Amino acid sequence: MGSHPHTAPLPTPTTPAGQEGLAAILARPDRAVIALDFDGTLADIVPDPEQARAHPGTVEALAALAPKVASIAVITGRPAGVAVRYGGFAGVPGLDHLVVLGHYGAERWDAVSGTVHAPAPHPGVAAVRAELPGVLDRFDSWQGTWIEEKGQALAVHTRRAQDPQAAFEALRGPLGELAARHGLIVEPGRLVLELRPSGMDKGVALTQYVHETGAESVLYAGDDLGDLAAYAAVEKLRTEGPDGTPGLLICSGHAEVPELAERADVLLPGPGAVVGFLSALAQRL
Q1: What is the pLDDT of residues 194-229, one digit of tens each?
Q2: Are 101 and 76 in contact (CB under 8 A)?
Q3: Which of 19, 162, 168, 260 has the fewest CB neighbours in a 10 Å radius?
């Protein structure tokens, strides 16, 4: 590994399980999977999700880290192609070991082929797409909410509403009923409610990918309620088999989602700090 004169110190995980996870990654990086959420983890949260871009330095940090580990997987609710575009991940030297698991793993882009593999959308998504504007129009207090088209899913954002939190709470019930009618579920996030097929979550995607790669350790970094499933997957991987798979859980922006922060091994204030951590890790390996 060797030490570098300019190496930033890696934060010490606050839990024994996290310390074991980091030690395993440092000992055998070529057997480690580094899994990362996109929005709020690699990209700063912005009022308009279409303006989200990877934090400055993200691609450089990933390109430095990727050749030293088994794989880097960006796991996101966004379509895979959108995350690749907003992240600037395509055609970057050194990023051969990068995959983007979009729509919670339903879609997959890998840097080697540069193509997205995706299933046909769930029929309930089209039905919800047709009905959603009418549902929103019935309530004056929901002015400022808007619908994000995700192909395999739809999201309703309340960040621009007059009272974002009140609109979010008011919408949960009606959107839950609409989703259920068409065989979908509602996934709440930070002032966003996503209507999507069940069975797609970051935990399922991460577990399948760890098994597929035969990884012997895993890092996961996230910032929102949708990342809880991936946290649970890492916690389960730690206990499975004779020795378990050591794992490290990182929370980005820890003041926002206490449910995530309470279970994390390392708390970082946001995407800039996550990029700093990834750079420091690359330098250590």
Answers
A1: 998 887 789 999 999 999 999 999 999 999 988 999
A2: yes
A3: 162
**Exposed/middle/buried for 84, CB within 10 Å: 0-12, 13-18, 19+?**
buried
Identify the three-state secondary structure at position 130. helix
pTM of the model: 0.81
Residue tagged active-site, from 30, 37, 44, 265: 37
CA-angle at 51, arms to 81 and 279, nearest 5°? 75
Q: What is the pLDDT of residues 125-154, one digit of tens each?
A: 999 999 998 888 887 656 788 899 888 889
Angle (CA) 43-49-51 rounded to 5° is 75
d(CA 156, CA 145): 7
Kindly give the pairing relationship between strand 217-222 and strand 32-36: parallel
Neighbours of 181 (CB within 10 A): 12
In sequence order, the β-bridge partners of residue 115 are 110
Which of 139, 131, 134 is CA-nearest to residue 171? 139
Structure tokens at 127: 């039905």
Tell whether the model's pLDDT for residue 116 goes beyond 60: yes
Q: How far apart are CA 23 and CA 46, in angstroms?
A: 34
> Among this protein's residues, is 37 annotated catalytic?
yes
Tell me the per-residue pLDDT of 15-58, one tens digit each, with 9 for 90 and over.
Answer: 999 999 999 999 999 999 999 999 999 999 888 888 999 999 99
CA distance 136 to 139: 6
Cα–Cα distance for residue pair 128/14, rounded to 1 Å: 43
Q: In terms of DSSP bridges, do strands 247-252 and 71-75 run parallel, antiparallel, or are they unpaired?
A: unpaired
